[in-house]
Amino acid sequence: MSAEKGSAMVPLATAAPRRPTYPTPTARGESSFRLPAELRAAGQARRRVRVALAAWGVPTPAAEAAELVVSELVANAVRHTASGTVHCRLWDTGSRLGVEVTDEHAGPHRPRQRAAQAQDEGGRGLALVDAVSLRWGVTAAAAGPGQRVWAELPRPTARIAGAAPAGHGPVQPAETRS
After folding, report:
1. What is the rounded CA–CA span in Å between residue 98 and residue 114?
2. Residue 151 pLDDT greater than 60, yes or no
């Protein structure tokens, strides 16, 4: 399945014999790692993503959104599949950040966004992913029975404190009057 902003969930084309499409960017930065499919994996993934994005100079709000997405996707893979490990991939194209989590076992159901009720303890993860992502989707893993869940997020460029927006000249300090 796939989701785009402003649209309902739309199934990926399954009739075509070719490999399913998913983001394959030319990355300015790329990192991947494998974790045991254990409850603590989401926290470990967040920490690794935080370190990589800091090294790439990604602004804090975008980095925090990517940490949230990887945490939700890893938690889903651990909770809802019979995987022994999960593989995470992160990339930075300069204009977008990508997060991808591949598990080893697709199980009977593919990930889907659902409407959690106020009293539900879970069921909001993919809604959060949808809220902070430009788009996200699910494809079959390149090898084996697993699945790949990916998301693309906006990657704003960092601004230097006190710098003027392009074409607006220097920022002047506010006058103080006594």
Report:
1. 23
2. yes
